[in-house]
Design a protein that fits this description.
The chain has 13 helices and no strands. It is mainly α. The chain has one domain. Helix 2 packs antiparallel against helix 9 and helix 4 packs antiparallel against helix 12.
Length: 286
């Protein structure tokens, strides 16, 4: 169940990131994030009202110490990531952001004392190594005469750190309150922090109500919340150090879509990285 949950998260996040790149280049990363997260939150809100009688909401206050920083960090990571998608190559920024799994795995092993089998350790190493290989275009790096970061790389690294810590903080809440409430709280607090930020920075959140754009934003938000539901459901029942690397393999989906529709080229080491991620996914499933 943990593997299946991770795979669903992988496809949801991978597709939504590709669509978010298109939207961010069209209306900007801030507007893309706000409207897609509003869609995701409204979908979660519908489920919340339907399941309200069965939800353990009375215990939420004692977990705010996890949920508030998780919501803030996820906002920081996603804004940085969306900005990176507008400034850099999707097939580079996405895998770097996806390396959040490395942070989550290390924190889970250290703080939750999760014990992994040998094949799971090898699989996780393959997945994370594959993500790193996919993240680098060696030909482009060799052309750089001085040490500089490619466009969007810095934002991808910020997303990696912020997402890794944020999704780690969701683990104890998911195990204590079930899979849904942590996602709902994360989306709620993320939106609140974003609204506060836009108020102080005096940025507008208005968009042109064009049907194609609204459909695009809805798809991004829908795929994002489904991926979150799957991730939280998985870590409630399985080791986070297993679910996280599978879910973080979403760059495979993003890169394939970017290669097909945006004509982004994949160099040899990136192809090798993709193969490593696939091999890791197969091995961790055995």
């Amino acid at each position: 169940m943990g593997i299946l949950s991770g795979l669903l998260s992988m496809f949801g996040w991978g597709t939504s990131d590709f669509l978010a790149a298109k939207s961010s280049r069209r209306i900007g990363y801030l507007l893309t994030y706000f409207w897609t997260q509003l869609v995701a939150f409204l979908i979660a809100l519908i489920y919340f009202w339907i399941k309200l009688p069965t939800l353990n909401i009375n215990n939420i206050p004692q977990y705010l110490i996890f949920l508030l920083p998780a919501g803030f960090l996820f906002l920081v990571g996603t804004l940085a990531f969306y900005k990176g998608l507008t400034e850099g190559q999707v097939s580079l920024v996405s895998p770097i952001g996806a390396s959040w799994a490395m942070i989550t795995v290390v924190l889970s092993v250290v703080f939750f004392k999760e014990v992994l089998q040998t094949n799971q350790i090898v699989a996780i190493i393959l997945i994370i190594s594959g993500i790193i290989l996919v993240s680098v275009n060696l030909k482009e790096l060799l052309k750089i005469k001085r040490l500089t970061l490619l466009g969007g790389i810095k934002e991808g690294l910020i997303a990696m750190l912020a997402w890794g810590i944020s999704l780690f903080l969701m683990v104890p809440v998911s195990k204590a309150l079930s899979w849904f409430l942590p996602v709902f709280a994360l989306k709620l607090f993320g939106l609140l922090f974003l609204v506060i930020y836009t108020m102080f920075s005096k940025k507008s959140l208005k968009i042109d109500l064009q049907i194609p754009l609204l459909i695009l934003l809805f798809l991004i938000g829908f795929l994002d919340i489904i991926a979150f539901f799957a991730y939280s459901f998985g870590v409630e029942r399985e080791y986070a150090s297993i679910v996280a690397p599978v879910a973080a393999s979403f760059p495979l989906v993003t890169i394939i879509l970017a290669r097909i529709f945006l004509k982004e080229k994949i160099v040899f080491n990136q192809a090798l990285g993709i193969a490593g991620v696939i091999a890791g996914l197969i091995l961790i499933s055995i």
